[in-house]
């Protein structure tokens, strides 16, 4: 091998690592932290408890292996007693969760990155609970929208849920989010009836069952909001289930992220005895934009207690 060939071969070998780095960089797609992730095809996200990193102790173990994805999973191994979690968010809001014996619950970090203090309790008798442990976790999200795409204890769905399958049958990945919201909203309000008897008798701690709501075709505002949230999240549209008050009435509604506009507050809400597409500001051609803004423009009409 002559000297010229050896020099060329040496130059190629020296350049190869940089070439591989350049090629691999061109082949990957980066996702901005402040924009929702894009999945193709549409993907129903599934929380996982891998056991790689855990906190707490029996009877309630916290799997925190995926906190960067915006959630952790609380798993009870108790055979007969309920467990409870109290979570202090970065803003100081106290969230409470109850986990039935032998069950698990997905809990999302709805205030985004920051420090969350998690205290576990076990039922002693009736409504009496004893503290098990207290842990502080520092959350750094890979994407700010992930907590509003995954299911959780309040918005519980899987790829096999009827709600997820229905949502994906109504739209496809080429449907823009405004049209997807409209189609899902139209389906929900056309096929559900408000259940006044349930509203009068619902007890503290009630959790919606989105597939049961679809099956019965009835529900209260909590059921409407949870079903709509589950269907939107199944289509990779970030959605917040908001729980609080409209005026002095206990209420649930949704905020939706529209890519062309950002977060649309009170996007779908309940007024009187009808559900309404409350905020059409993402639709520049809406004829009733001004009238609706008279109501939703006053933030005092809505008081958020919890975001799920």
UniProtKB/TrEMBL annotation:
Short name of one Pfam family: Transglut_core
Source species, domain of life: Bacteria
SUPFAM superfamilies with a match to the protein in the record: Cysteine proteinases (SSF54001)
InterPro entries noted in UniProt: Papain-like_cys_pep_sf, Transglutaminase-like
Transglutaminase-like domain span: 213-270
Gene3D superfamilies linked to this entry: 3.10.620.30
Name of protein: Transglutaminase-like superfamily protein
Source species: Blautia obeum
């Amino acid at each position: 091998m002559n000297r010229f060939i050896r020099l060329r071969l040496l130059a190629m070998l020296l350049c190869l690592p940089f070439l591989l780095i350049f090629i691999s960089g061109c082949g990957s797609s980066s996702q901005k932290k402040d924009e929702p992730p894009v999945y193709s095809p549409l993907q129903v996200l599934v929380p996982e408890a891998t056991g790689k990193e855990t906190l707490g102790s029996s009877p309630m173990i916290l799997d925190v292996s995926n906190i960067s994805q915006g959630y952790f999973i609380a798993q009870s191994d108790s055979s007969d007693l309920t467990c409870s979690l109290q979570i202090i968010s970065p803003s100081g809001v106290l969230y409470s969760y109850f986990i039935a014996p032998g069950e698990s619950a997905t809990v999302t970090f709805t205030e985004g990155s920051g420090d969350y203090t998690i205290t576990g309790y076990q039922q002693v008798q009736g409504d009496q609970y004893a503290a098990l442990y207290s842990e502080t976790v520092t959350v750094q999200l890979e994407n700010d929208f992930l907590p509003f795409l995954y299911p959780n204890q309040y918005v519980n769905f899987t790829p096999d849920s009827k709600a997820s399958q229905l949502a994906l049958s109504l739209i496809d990945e080429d449907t823009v989010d405004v049209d997807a919201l409209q189609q899902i909203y139209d389906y929900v309000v056309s096929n559900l009836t408000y259940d006044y008897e349930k509203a009068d008798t619902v007890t503290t701690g009630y959790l919606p069952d989105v597939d049961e709501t679809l099956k019965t075709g009835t529900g209260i505002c909590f059921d409407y909001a949870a079903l709509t949230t589950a269907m939107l999240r199944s289509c990779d549209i970030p959605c917040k289930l908001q729980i609080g008050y409209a005026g002095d009435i206990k209420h649930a509604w949704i905020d939706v992220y529209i890519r062309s506009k950002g977060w649309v507050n009170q996007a779908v809400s309940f007024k009187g005895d009808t559900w309404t597409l409350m905020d059409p500001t993402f639709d520049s051609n809406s004829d009733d934009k001004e009238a609706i803004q008279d109501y939703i423009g006053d933030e005092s009409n809505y008081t958020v207690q919890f975001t799920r």
